Amino acid sequence: WNEIIELFRAGMPLRKHRCRFKSYERCFKASEAVECLHELLGSNQNFGPEVTRDQTVKLLKKFLKNHVIEDIKGRWGKEDFEDDGHLYRFPPSSPLKSYPKKPTCGKEVIKFPDWNEPRAGPSQEHIPVKSVTMNSEMWYKRHSIAIGEVPACKLVFRRELTQANIEEIWKSMTLSQLQKVLGLDSLDEVLDTKLVNSKHIVQNVYNVNKQGIVTLEDKSKELPHWILSAMKCLANWPSCSDMKQPTYSGFERDVFKTIVDYFGQMKEPLLTFHFFDIFVSVLGLLQKPSKAVEALQISCLLLPPENRKRLQLLVRMMARISVNQDLPRLSESVRTRTLV
């Protein structure tokens, strides 16, 4: 919520507009807001190009209701925003939701009162409860039994974590959980932990779209468009949006063979040689489906992001074509499910 509001406030152009013979400074039309926010959502990795204009209008309705925006007369609180020419503006107060903050620790050592010091005379602000002055010896005798020995007070300052610290924490927790799920005393027999790249784990955890597919920072490592089109064609058979309908018998087999040849000519399997033994260990858990799924999910976090994304797309395609009754058989001798 806060991230989108900040992006919207920073990216929304504010101009002078006229309405009913009056001019208004630093405002925008409703249609301009829809256009701007729709573009921002489309380029944001947490939303993506799947966001429609209608969904953007619904979000702006929420903005108007929660006083992220207001009309030029200062009205807000209702979801009556429409994609039209009405004028709106940002309120002067911040619309961001506040987060609870810990009180900042000052470096000055807290001083406890010296009970031996003479007390100041009575005032309106400080009226003594008792007229008798209590010195430190009297105070200690009264409270020592209740509180025991009081250690010296020391302030502990929080240490800022670096990105490298965060990545190592993710690596340590991931390997620890994997070892626990596999039921091993140590991962040394199945994995060289020095080969585990902590950056890959962090990218696989955080850089995912709404469908759970990894998004790559380096677009040159994406699958070629033609192989993606071939995979979509079989996965969505017979509704192929990226390809024309086949004009000859056996077209779907040729598409399947193209996909098989592409992944078959790779120099290294998607699971990589380094992590092969880990995935073999997962096979030993197949009699316990829930544990096997968890172990597989954790193991896939170790893969390079480009490998994990290709594996995700490939497995999803295989799952869909294995149950698609409309897809012709991809082999004369073997059933499609067995072949996949």
Q: What's the topology here?
A:
Blueprint: H1 2-11, E1 15-19, E2 22-29, H2 30-42, H3 53-65, E3 70-71, E4 87-89, H4 136-147, H5 163-182, H6 198-206, H7 225-235, H8 251-264, H9 276-283, H10 289-300, H11 305-322, H12 336-339
Antiparallel strand pairs: 1-2, 2-4, 3-4
Overview of this protein structure:
GO terms for molecular function: GTPase activator activity. Keywords: GTPase activation. It contains twelve helices and four strands; from the N terminus they run αββααββααααααααα. It is mainly α and 340 residues long. It folds into two domains: 2-89, Orthogonal Bundle (Arc Repressor Mutant, subunit A); 163-339, no CATH class. The chain has a four-stranded antiparallel β-sheet. A hairpin with a 2-residue loop joins strand 1 and strand 2 (22-29). The longest helix is centred in the middle third of the chain and has 20 residues, at 163-182. The two termini are 42 Å apart.
Low-confidence stretches: 98-103, 105-117
Biggest β-sheet, characterized? Answer: 4 strands, antiparallel
Number of domains: 2
The percent range for strand residues is 5-15%
Helix content: 40-55%
Rg over C-alpha atoms, rounded to the nearest angstrom: 32 Å
Secondary structure class reads mainly alpha
Domain Rho-GAP: 185-340
Organism: Vidua macroura (Pin-tailed whydah)
GO molecular function: GTPase activator activity
GO biological process, one term: intracellular signal transduction
